[in-house]
User: Which sequence fits this backbone?
């Protein structure tokens, strides 16, 4: 049995996870944290994380970047491992995540789905073939109109996978509107689309002369992220300080 504190419990992801855990005999949400306290979840909700006095094995986080600094401090102070799923963190926050992982276990992943985490591995192999052959690489992501960060954390993580396999030779380009010159070979373009209720789409395009290879992942519901986050929580219970990712969970 893993005891969970759900950070961002009254948001979209927090509510999907609340539903999934309710049907899981091996997991229990013992407390929630959210600045909005507008529903009965069947567990206590704290509007300030520092007021939470409930002990847990792990914190699952789907909240907002602005909440991450206090979350990290809480995890270190109470020695509670953190599954960190919020995206759009600043460079300073990413540095703080690394620093805190020396003191408590942190599993950070911009996308908890099996599909995206498998795609990251496949892209490394593809990039090693298509990059030396001179193919241009572009990523297009699409999400719902409530998303605040752009590009998505997943698009950046996919780009990082490719760049790592290619000796970090690519520079990410997010906007070509002010540039009047041809595309450089060392650019990796990342474009974001926002609209309606799109759960999450990511396309990675390798465009060569007279042929195009596309990898596409579509999430049809938020459950794919929620299930992965609960599995990550079970994995992280009792783990020593350090940085972990979904590859550690999936194997
Ligand atoms: N890693 C993944 O697989 C994955 C999947 C989906 C979403 N996300 C990310 O998770 C985050 C949340 O997504 P969502 O769709 O549930 O958003 P949401 O806006 O529906 O929910 C966020 C919740 O966090 C709460 N919150 C905001 N500030 C807070 C604070 N200071 N302290 C405590 N709670 C606070 C809000 O009140 C809200 O209830 C986003 O960053 C999103 O990109 C990651
Ligand atoms: O709905 C969101 O917001 C999502 N955010 C993550 C990201 O930024 O990559 C994962 C997909 C859904």
Assistant:
């Amino acid at each position: 049995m893993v005891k969970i504190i759900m950070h961002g419990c009254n948001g979209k992801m927090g509510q999907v996870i609340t539903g999934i855990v309710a049907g899981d005999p091996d997991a229990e949400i013992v407390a929630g944290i959210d600045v909005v306290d507008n529903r009965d979840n069947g567990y206590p909700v704290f509007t300030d994380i520092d007021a939470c006095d409930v002990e847990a094995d792990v914190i699952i986080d789907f909240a907002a970047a602005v909440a991450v600094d206090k979350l990290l401090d809480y995890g270190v102070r109470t020695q509670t491992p953190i599954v960190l799923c919020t995206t759009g963190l600043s460079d300073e926050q990413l540095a703080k995540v690394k620093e805190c992982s020396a003191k408590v276990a942190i599993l950070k992943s911009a996308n908890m789905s099996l599909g995206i985490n498998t795609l990251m591995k496949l892209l490394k192999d593809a990039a090693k073939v298509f990059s030396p052959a001179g193919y241009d690489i572009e990523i297009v992501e699409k999400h719902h109109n409530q998303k605040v960060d752009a590009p998505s954390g997943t698009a950046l993580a996919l780009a990082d996978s490719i760049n790592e396999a290619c000796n970090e030779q690519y520079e990410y380009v997010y906007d070509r509107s002010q540039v009047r010159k041809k595309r450089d070979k060392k650019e990796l373009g990342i474009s974001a689309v926002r609209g309606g209720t799109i759960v999450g789409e990511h396309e990675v395009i390798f465009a060569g002369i007279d042929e195009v290879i596309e990898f596409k992942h579509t999430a049809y519901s938020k459950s794919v992220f929620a299930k992965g986050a609960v599995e990550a929580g079970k994995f992280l219970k009792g783990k020593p300080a350090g940085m972990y990712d979904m590859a550690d969970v999936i194997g």
In short: The chain has a mean pLDDT of 97.
